[in-house]
Each structure stands twice: as structure tokens, then as C-alpha cells.
Design brief:
This protein is of the alpha/beta class. It has two domains: 83 residues, Urease, subunit C, domain 1, CATH 2.30.40.10; 284 residues, TIM Barrel, CATH 3.20.20. Helices cover 26% and strands 29% of the residues. It has ten helices and 21 strands. The strands form four sheets. Strands 1, 2, 3, 4, 5, 19, 20 and 21 form an eight-stranded mixed β-sheet that branches. It has an eight-stranded parallel β-sheet with strand order 6-9-10-11-12-13-14-15. The relative contact order is 0.17.
């Protein structure tokens, strides 16, 4: 099936292009252009032509870090994963890394194995993200403290074996005993390592980035803040061109002015994630995250035990609207949801863009940045 989306405002590659079109064929972007030139091209004779009537057309979004939605968590098995993915797909997330909260090594190995099976069957699932158990207890957030541990080599190897090459990301606190050694082992295995849930100093963070870490997990949250004499991991990441900073743009985790500060401090290196838990797409109520009781009120998830923020109820289209409201230029905000996370995972040639040859993943938005339509591999969802 060949499809032409025409008459839209294409937001890609740092630009907004009016009266744009994109042609999809065999699951890929065949070509893009402006005006009506496509009508004279025999390749598009009989194509399914969709008039976007001035709507925005963007690449499909990629979520590096999310835990669930639709009332369930990615930790809960294949049916729960399908339910949660459907929620986020409707909000423009065409590809996702599935994040797992801290659990025992046995449980994590089993869950990573489940996601490995799904990754082989469903190309919209990019693999798993281990957010724990190798985290600092003093910055544990919504992770069970008794299950946190240093990254012993045996545990690292057990998880890598279970993942069969599908673990995409791991968050760890590099200052833990054996932290840098584990970091190097994950990097050698092709895993993107994120500094996060950490007490790391500026120097320790720099050492982690020099050792191969390329991400900062949900910047500003679960780590030391910026101090003028102790800049910490945030400034270390902003100053290092090799590092992508995750950001939860829900107006709760990070103030809008700080969202703007992050984009200014690390241009082209901000990835807008959801960190969504089960309440995403459902709403307020009582939930469980990693075995911990959570109450969601007015869209904010907090642990019952100590009131700590426990993930978000965010979807990526809402993150886009929050970023734009924080005065982030629309092309920059879209890139933070598409090309930047694709590049962070080493997928920049195939995903995160509507350049010819890329996967035909696309989202159409109205003027208020509400999702109208979603395409994956050239098929309308």
C-alpha cells in the first residue's frame, strides 16, 4: 500500500515546512516534498491520499523511559504490556523501551525475558530498561529500598543473559561499589547506561560519562540539585556533548522554567520521557508500583509511605504541549520526542525522522497539539 499525506505542516529536522507531503511505501518513507508535485509522480498513482488540511505532521514519538498505563505496569506480563502500549500509542508513542522497576534479580531476569520475547515479535517494542536495582538508597524515589543492591558481576551477567541482547538501557548509581565496572560491562554489551537515582558528585558523574554512560535518568529528579560550588550530575551531563538528558515535562517533576533551562543548557540533547506508571490514561485513584502503594490525586502520583513522587501519569503528546507552553520551539520539542531518543539508542537512521528511508512512523496533530492520527510502518493506527 502506498500512502500520501499531503497539505500538512511537516515538523522535522528542526523546521516547520508548510504545505508539505510525505509518501509512504512498503513501511518506509519513500519521499517528502511540498505542494502538489506528488500528483504527477507515477509512483503515487492510486495511492491512498490523506488531506491533512493544515494539520501538523511529525515523526512518531519514542519513549526511552515509561513503566505502564491503562491501569497496568510493564512488569505485569504480556497482556499488561499490550494494554499499556495501546494507551501510549494513541498519544503518539509509536516505539517504546519498557521500563522495569526494582525487583529481585530472579524477578527482573524473568521480566526481561518476557520483554525479550515481545521485542522479537513486536517491532514497536524496542527492548527493556532496568531502572534498578543498582540505585542509591538515599535517592531511591519509588523503589523498594530493601531490594536495592550494588551491581555485583554475577547479577549483571544474569540480567544480560536473560535479556538476550534486548536490554536497551540500565539506570545505575555509578558511585556504588563496583559501579564503574558494571557500567563498562553493560556498555560492552551494547546497553545504554544512564546515571540516575544517584548521590554522585560532579567528578563521579564525569567519571561515569568518561566510562561510557550516555544518559541522565529523569534530570533533576532523584539526584543532587545544582549548587554553585557543587554542580553535581546535572551540570556534568549538560556540559558533556556525549550525554542525553531525560526530562519529565509534566509540570510536576520539573518547573516549566527549569524545562526551558534544560533545553538551553543542553540543546539537541533533551529527550522528553513519560516515566508513566499505571495511572496514565486512567486517572486518579489507588495503584501499586513495584509492590509499593501509590495514590494518584490531581494527576500526581505519590507513595503512600512517604509522599515521594512515584512516576507520572504523562503521555508524550502532553509532554509536547507542556514543552511548547514553556516556550520551547515546536521543532525542538518534537525532536526531543523523536530524533533525540532515537539517536540516544543508536537508532537514528531508522526511527525518529520522516526522512526518506526511515520507518514510516508518523503522528498528526491539530492546531492545539492534540493527536488526530497515528501511523506505524506506513499503516494507519
Amino acid at each position: 500500500m502506498t500512502t500520501i499525506l499531503h497539505g500538512g505542516r511537516l515538523v522535522d529536522g528542526g523546521l516547520v515546512t508548510d504545505d508539505a507531503w510525505a509518501g509512504f511505501a512498503d513501511g518506509l518513507v519513500a519521499a517528502t516534498g511540498t505542494g502538489d508535485a506528488w500528483r504527477a509522480d507515477a509512483a503515487y498513482a492510486g495511492a491512498d491520499a490523506v488531506d491533512l488540511a493544515g494539520a501538523y505532521l511529525t515523526p512518531g514519538f519514542i519513549d526511552l523511559h515509561g513503566h505502564g498505563g491503562g491501569g497496568v505496569a510493564f512488569d505485569d506480563g504480556p497482556d499488561a504490556i499490550a494494554t499499556a502500549r495501546a494507551v501510549h500509542l494513541a498519544h503518539g508513542t509509536t516505539r517504546a523501551v519498557l521500563s522495569l522497576v526494582t525487583a529481585s534479580i530472579d524477578d527482573l531476569a524473568r521480566r526481561v525475558g518476557v520483554i525479550a520475547d515481545l521485542t522479537e515479535a513486536d517491532p514497536t517494542i524496542l527492548g527493556s530498561h532496568l531502572e534498578g536495582p543498582f540505585l542509591d538508597a538515599g535517592h531511591k524515589g519509588a523503589h523498594t529500598e530493601s531490594l536495592l543492591r550494588a551491581p555485583e558481576p554475577e547479577a549483571v551477567e544474569r540480567l544480560l543473559t536473560a535479556g538476550r541482547g534486548t536490554i536497551r538501557q540500565v539506570t545505575l548509581a555509578p558511585e556504588l561499589p563496583g559501579g564503574l565496572d558494571a557500567l563498562g560491562r553493560f556498555v560492552d554489551a551494547g546497553v545504554a547506561v544512564a546515571v540516575g537515582h544517584t548521590a554522585a558528585t560532579h567528578a563521579q558523574s564525569q567519571a561515569a560519562f568518561d566510562a561510557g554512560a550516555t544518559l541522565l535518568t529523569h534530570a533533576f529528579n532523584a539526584m543532587p540539585g545544582i549548587h554553585h560550588r557543587a554542580p553535581g550530575p546535572i551540570v556534568a551531563a549538560m556540559r558533556d556533548e556525549r550525554v542525553t538528558l531525560e526530562l519529565i515535562a509534566d509540570g510536576i517533576h520539573v518547573h516549566p522554567d527549569v524545562i526551558a533551562l534544560a533545553f538551553a543548557g543542553a540543546p539537541g540533547r533533551i529527550a522528553l520521557i513519560t516515566d508513566a506508571m499505571a495511572a496514565a490514561g486512567v486517572g486518579d485513584g489507588r495503584y501499586v508500583l513495584g509492590g509499593l502503594a501509590v495514590t494518584v490525586a490531581d494527576g500526581t502520583a505519590r507513595l503512600d509511605s512517604d509522599g515521594a513522587i512515584a512516576g507520572s501519569t504523562l503521555t508524550q503528546d502532553a509532554a509536547l504541549r507542556t514543552a511548547v507552553a514553556a516556550c520551547i520551539a515546536l521543532p525542538d520539542a518534537v525532536a526531543a520526542l523523536s530524533s533525540v531518543p532515537a539517536r540516544a539508542l543508536g537508532l537514528g537512521d531508522r526511527y525518529g525522522s520522516l526522512r526518506p528511508g526511515a520507518a514510516a512512523d508518523a503522528v498528526v496533530f491539530d492546531a492545539g497539539l492534540t493527536v488526530i492520527d497515528v501511523w506505524i510502518d506506513g499503516s494507519r493506527i
